Amino acid sequence: PENRCEKASILGKRRRHLGPNLALFFEDDPLHIVRGQGCEIFDAEGNDYLDCVNNVSHVGHAHPRVVSAVSQQLATLNTNSRYLAEGLVNYSEALAATMPDPLQVVYMTVSGSEANDLAWRIASAAAQHLPPPAPAADAAQEACGKRAAPAAVHVAVIDHAYHGHTSCCIDLSPYKFKGPGGGGRPTWVHVLPCPDVYRGRNLDGGAAARAAIAEAERGGARIAAFFSESILSCGGQVLLPDGYLAAVYREMRGHGAVCVADEVQCGFGRVGSAFWAFELQQVVPDIVTFGKPCGNGFPMAGLVTSGRLAAAFSNGMEFFATFGGCTAAPACGLAVLDVIREEQLQANAAHVGAHCMQLLSELQADHSDVVGDVRGEGLMIGVEIVTDAASRTPAPALARQIKQHCKLHHRVLLSSEGPYSSVIKIKPPICFTVAHAERMVGALRTALESFTTLSPADKAALADASGEEVDRIAARHSRLS
Ligand code: PMP
Prior knowledge:
The protein is α/β, with parallel strands linked by helices. It is 41% helix and 17% strand. The chain has a seven-stranded mixed β-sheet with strand order 4-12-11-10-7-5-6, with helices on both faces. It has a four-stranded mixed β-sheet with strand order 1-2-3-15. Strands 13-14-17-16 form a four-stranded antiparallel β-sheet, covered by helices on one side. Helix 2 (64-76) packs antiparallel against helix 11 and helix 8 packs parallel to helix 9. The protein binds 4'-deoxy-4'-aminopyridoxal-5'-phosphate (PMP). 4'-deoxy-4'-aminopyridoxal-5'-phosphate (PMP) binds at residues 111-113, 116, 162-165, 229, 233, 262, 264-265, 291-292, 301. One of its GO terms (cellular component) is mitochondrion. Keywords: Pyridoxal phosphate. InterPro entries: Aminotrans_3, Aminotrans_3_PPA_site, PyrdxlP-dep_Trfase, PyrdxlP-dep_Trfase_major, PyrdxlP-dep_Trfase_small.
């Protein structure tokens, strides 16, 4: 009861002092967490929860090596990047060493949003050096003898993407501008349909890119940048078809656009078989943006680009971010890179990820009616829940029930993603172990078993129930069973 009072008090203050659109996980019964270690977080009563969705605490919550590097630096000196400091150049060198040529120039920011915002500024600066796109035939006739106006710079993104919360990044994020409170697609943004490998839709990247380019050119504009993740997270943990990005990049570059890989979620060894997820697609981006995992919880992010683009951006205006590359950031970033290497966490992501996929495939075989698809690479995994295998209709209500069950009965924290919130997302710290994988999939199994024992009427009601109805059905069911 004391804990309930404490929770109520925090909730009360939260409602008074924090914005109402700041979301809370498990809103009906939020967790009051006080400590983290490795892949677990602990609530105020000391209960351990398995954290299966955290790509910030990448090498484990409160990793002692990272904590010590940051706190020692904070206790010594933490100031901006305008002084000579070994840490910043050493971190930039270490990061560049993970990248293919010609990606060797690093800009540090504080958040992934800022990194993408900056990538857009660099791409727009580079576009200033390009000739305007060829006008359509009738426009060319009309313009004959007149000097063409410089083309407006546009951008292309993949549907359902999220690239950040600044004004510019909201415009780059269909996940936001198409959703509640969003203003719809800005005219300068062109959206490639999200490839849906499971349902066999929109798989041709080249065709999608050509359509976006044609749309921009019809308006006399040029696409200056194409932004995408290399595994689509908000899109529903979608693995791109082989050759997809290569085809998009080819079209975009033919048109003069810069290709940006947003590795904010999937970088730093998470995908196991590669350090960066763009490597899975065998492409070399022009700009790679990174964030969340690089600081293991310390706010730092940035981008890596080529000397050519850095020179185009260097137009006389200084680039400066007070905390971007401040002394503590590289100290932290170097410790994270050391831990990934020394604890062989990329190989761990590959090994434990493969084990998760095996366990999840067995689960799918036993529940093939509702587990529509299991997909992933390393520890970036999605489990798509459907109403039935034949129609492949997304089942967000059931996905929600599964998440609630796992939290309530097994203290396993999962989340859902995708255009319909019907994909259970799994992206734990990459120190996740085989034992953790077994605990997680065991929880999913009992959740699914409890669903299969529901009455046909409850099953039907669940298929398109709202959140509250799901909870009512689940509560009635747990009383019955
Ligand atoms: N890009 C992607 C793919 C992200 O997932 C996020 C954050 N969820 C961002 C960019 C923005 O990062 P931040 O919240 O650090 O600004």
